[in-house]
Every structure is written in structure tokens, then in C-alpha cells.
């Protein structure tokens, strides 16, 4: 008899009742990172935004509400999070084009985008080098790519799919990989106890 596949951690793919609870907790914990990310996008005045791993949809919601973005695109591997974000963003359907769907860093929409964001999803990318090259090609020349990394002890990273996130120097490795893809680091900041934000331009 074939072995039953292991259930994915809630952090990677929230599902069921436990996933709803996890999402609620993460939404509260991550609010400073959401606010910081939207603030970094304000100078760009983005009309189009792509988010990888959008979770409950808070960043896309604020991009529509505060930045008046007209195209909101998101990819997330969790059915629960897709339904949650679609419901949250439904109020903007008449004012913006919505494309909120299942997917991950290997299944991206067509660009260009004025802004690309990824909060706490980098650790789940299986091929970060390839994904970063693709994101660079999707970002408009004057756009911004905001990457927020989860701060964690390296000893707790062994199960992560992203080989760069399994390293003790994840942040330095991510910056170097982004540079190889053509991005230029234009700013960074520690956000509370749990996150570190990086802002890139096309270069």
C-alpha cells in the first residue's frame, strides 16, 4: 500500500479550520510588514501589482484602496487563501481588474507590472534563481520589487523548499541572487521581530 503523502505545514499551504486560525494569527503578526510594503510602493504609484503568496490578500487590498492600483494579480498555492482573498478584494471588482488564482512562483501572470511583492513566501520557492530572473523580466523599468523575508533561527529552516532559505545567511544569499537576476538593492529595513524587508529596482 502506498504511503499517504505528508500534509504540508500550515505556514506553506493553510487549509481547513487550522488554516483559518493560522491565517488570522499571521495577519495580526504581519501587519507591520504589510504597512511597510505598501509604503515602499507609494512613490511608484503602481497601476499594476503582482503578489506571490498573497495569503489573506491584505497587501493587494491596500494597493487598491490606498494606491488606487487598477490591476491586481496574485498567485498563492492555498485554495483557502485564494477564496479568502477573492472575497476580500471583491469590492474592487468594478474599479480594478482582478486576477487572484492558485499558483506559485513557477506559475506567473504576464507583465509588465509596476510593482511586484512577496511577503514571507520566498522561503517556499523551489528554484529562486530562475524565479528572480522571471520577475525581473516582468517588472517595468521604473517599478519596484519588494521582498520581505521571515526572520528565523537557521536551525529551523531545514525543511524549507528554497535552498537559499535553508542557509544561515538567507538574506545575503537572497540579495546576491537578486543581483545576479539584474535587480539592484535600493533599500532595506528590519520590520519588528519577525521580518526583514528588501526593496529592489530593475537597475
Q: Report the end-to-end length measured between terminal Cα atoms.
A: 53 Å
Alpha-beta classification = alpha/beta
Q: What count of helical segments does DSSP give? A: 5
CATH class equals Alpha Beta
Shape: globular
Strand order in space, largest sheet? 3-2-1-4-5-7-6
Order of helices and strands: HEHEHEEHEHEE
Rounded to an integer in angstroms, the radius of gyration calculated over CA atoms is 16 Å
Strand content: 25-35%
Question: What's the CATH superfamily, by name?
Answer: Vaccinia Virus protein VP39
**Number of individual domains:** 1
Helicity range of the residues?
A: 25-40%
- As residue ranges, the low-confidence spans are 1-6
Structure description:
This protein has 203 residues and is α/β, with parallel strands linked by helices. It has a single domain (32-201), classed as Vaccinia Virus protein VP39 (Rossmann fold). The protein contains five helices and seven strands; from the N terminus they run αβαβαββαβαββ. Strands 3-2-1-4-5-7-6 form a seven-stranded mixed β-sheet, with helices on both faces. The longest helix is centred in the first third of the chain and has 26 residues, at 16-41. 39% of the residues are buried.
Amino acid at each position: 500500500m502506498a504511503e499517504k503523502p505528508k500534509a504540508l505545514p500550515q505556514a506553506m499551504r493553510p487549509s481547513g479550520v487550522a488554516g483559518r486560525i493560522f491565517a488570522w494569527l499571521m495577519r495580526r503578526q504581519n501587519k507591520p510588514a504589510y504597512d511597510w510594503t505598501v509604503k515602499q510602493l507609494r512613490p511608484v504609484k503602481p497601476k499594476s501589482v503582482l503578489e506571490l503568496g498573497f495569503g489573506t490578500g491584505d497587501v493587494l487590498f491596500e494597493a487598491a484602496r490606498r494606491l488606487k492600483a487598477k490591476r491586481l494579480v496574485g498567485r498563492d498555492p492555498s485554495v483557502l487563501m485564494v477564496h479568502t482573498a477573492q472575497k476580500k478584494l471583491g469590492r474592487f471588482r468594478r474599479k480594478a481588474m482582478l486576477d487572484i488564482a492558485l499558483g506559485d512562483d513557477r506559475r506567473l501572470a504576464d507583465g509588465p507590472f509596476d510593482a511586484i511583492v512577496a511577503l514571507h513566501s520566498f522561503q517556499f520557492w523551489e528554484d529562486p534563481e530562475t524565479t528572480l530572473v522571471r520577475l525581473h523580466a516582468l517588472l517595468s523599468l521604473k517599478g519596484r520589487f519588494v521582498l520581505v523575508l521571515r526572520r528565523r533561527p537557521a536551525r529551523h529552516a531545514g525543511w524549507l523548499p528554497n535552498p537559499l532559505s535553508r542557509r544561515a545567511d538567507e538574506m545575503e544569499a537572497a540579495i546576491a541572487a537578486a543581483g545576479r537576476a539584474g535587480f539592484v538593492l535600493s533599500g532595506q529595513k528590519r520590520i519588528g521581530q519577525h521580518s526583514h524587508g528588501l526593496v529592489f529596482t530593475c537597475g
